[in-house]
Amino acid sequence: MKNLKLKKGLTALISAALVATFAVAVPSSANAAEGCSETGFIDGAKFVAFQKCTGADGNGSKYEIRMPEKFNGMMFLYSHGIRNQVLLPKIPVINPDGVYSVPRSAPEVAPGRTAADQEIIAQTLLKQGYALAGAGVQVNGWSVPEAIEANVNLIVYAKDIFPTISKVVSWGDSLGGHISQSLSEQYGIIDAAANLHMAGTAASQYSYANDVLWMYKTLFDPTIKGNGYTQPEYAGDTRGYMELIGDIGKLLTVLGALSAAISANPLAPAWPASATNAPASLKGIPVRSAILLIGLLAGMPTQSNTYDASSGPKGALETSFGLAISPALAVLENTSTALALGVIGNYDAEMRCGGSIFDNSATDYASRLGDNGDIFAAGLSGKTATAGMLAFLNKLNPVAPRVTASASAVACINNQAAYTGKISVPTITVSQTADQITPAGYIQKMKDLYEASISNGDAKPGLLLNIWNKPPDEYTEFDSAGSPKAATGITTGTSHAMYTNDQIMVIAKLLASAGKSGKLPSIAAAKSALKKDPSMFIDPNFKPALMFQDR
What per-residue confidence (pLDDT) applies to 29? Predict the structure, then answer.
């Protein structure tokens, strides 16, 4: 086993995953001058004409509307995913091309993995007679209230200049899905909603990312700050920002060291040199076990874009690799995005709310393990090793200090116009079962909130359809030497990646049907629409675990 080499693939995977944190929303080209203009595109031998209207509302939120010449009366309103508020210098891996060095406020009118895919989706819908609209919120970061207001303003404006709009359906991805859902609950102006890998509440999303960040700091590099970038004494200077940049560098160093250690010796990889607080007894445990434990205690999927947590190379290692190593490698591949979300998200949230938003002073991490201690016993190196790692993370350990939040900042981040489950229009959700940024537990929480609203008389039954996107049973590939090969594309059901164009168009069709009829498609009709895609399924009995903050 010691000779099994992961080569440079794992480092590349970590780099790609970090970048993916910020690639959920693809920046559109800059808006043209404010106003409407006639334009169009060629579809085969046919010219599809539409009006394109751009501008900004009174708050400075940019908008775009596309109205086809042959309009069927329905407008698709799209909300894009989160965009970081803090601007970053060029940083290897995270911002190598400087994309995140400039403000991003352009609207988007359709989902898609790339700008080209977004345009394909947009043109396909325009050809079918649907109007499109989207707002680029004037404030980035976790800007749900501002985004909702921008969307309301956009709907009012769109109906004013195009009074033939009779139906509006809302869809969005990630934070945009959260915005779409909140908008549909709070205002009676949406006829149906479809939310793609929808984010949870701000409190739950930030707690998830910060649990990972705190455990990385505690176990692997105590010099990482992670929180408190906006101290009062920092007002007017760049100390907090420089601490953020420094933490990014330290996290990249830790990830590189972990990758190198596992590449050198997957069975018993060494701990990074930066783990100065870890005693020798802890460092006697393979560091891959600590990586896996972090994922389990945070609620992170143990499948990733490359690692299925079950298969292994042919031969003697086939079973042991799947049981002991693959889950840890999956968590490591997934972890980098959570770390980036943690530090950069913290900075954004602290700038917004004026203080630290994370508090784990009373968190009992040991109680979170539950049955996973037995399920992943091999990967965790047994009960004795697991108990030792949990003891190190205990709040009574003086070298594992907890974090205390600012009460006012917590109140601020909790008061972000979150959805409540009081669904009043047909609503569809689509989520990956192994999404490391918005894990499946967030949709389960949404289902629980909806069921509670029904019980309380605040919502009617039959308004929520949950569609799931799962990975194949086995997909990790190995080379002739038995080493895993880095995935060359996106493994369906993982990675918080946008869905394929075909999948998006199926959801668009279901959404349009719901908007027209005021009812969800039947389970049979929805399953029929998905029958050509074995990765998509509908199962009312599928119940992923809630995220820890939501329990």
Answer: 34
Which residue among 380, 412, 444 closes a domain? 412
Give me the pLDDT at residue 5, please: 42
Q: Give every CB contact of residue 22 below 8 A, 6+ residues apart in sequence.
A: 83, 84, 94, 95, 99, 100, 340
Neighbouring-strand partners of residue 75: 131, 168
- Domain match, 44 and 14 both: no
Please check whether residues 233 and 368 belong to one and the same domain. Answer: yes
End position of a domain, from candidates 412, 439, 473: 412
Q: Is the pTM of this model over 0.85?
A: yes
Cα 397 from chain centroid (whole Å): 32
Within this chain, do residues 99 and 137 fall inside the same structural domain, yes or no?
yes
Give residue 31's pLDDT. Answer: 37
Instruction: Tell me which amino acid residue 296 is.
Output: L
- Let me know: does 386 contact 369? Beta carbons within 8 Å: yes
* Domain count of the fold of the chain: 2
Same structural domain, 161 and 51: yes
Residue 467 lies in a domain: yes
pLDDT at 74: 98
Q: How confident is the model at residue 487 (pLDDT cuts 50, 70, 90)?
A: very high
Q: Any idea what the CATH number is for the domain that residue 72 is in?
A: 3.40.50.1820
DSSP class per residue in 132-177: EEEEE-SS-SS-HHHHHHHHHHHHHHHHHH-TT--EEEEEEETHHH
Domain that holds residue 281: 9-20+203-412
| Range in 171-175, 436-440, 479-483 the model is least confident about | 479-483
Name the DSSP letter for residue 232: G
> To which residue do tokens 């895609």 refer?
533
**pLDDT confidence tier of residue 192, bands split at 50, 70 and 90:** very high
Query: Do residue 352 and residue 212 come from a single domain?
Result: yes
**Cα–Cα distance between 20 and 114 in angstroms, integer?**
12
In this structure, the answer to whether residues 147 and 218 fall within a common structural domain is: no
443 touches 466 (CB < 8 A): yes
**474/186 Cα distance (integer angstroms):** 42
pLDDT, tens digit (0-9, with 9 covering 90-100), for 325-366: 999 999 999 998 889 888 999 999 999 999 999 999 999 999
Q: Where are the alpha helices (DSSP H) in 278-325?
A: 280-283, 287-298, 318-320
Burial class of residue 58 in the structure, from the number of CB atoms within 10 Å of its CB (0-12 exposed, 13-18 middle, 19+ buried): exposed
- HSE-up of residue 391 (Cα within 13 Å, Cβ side): 10
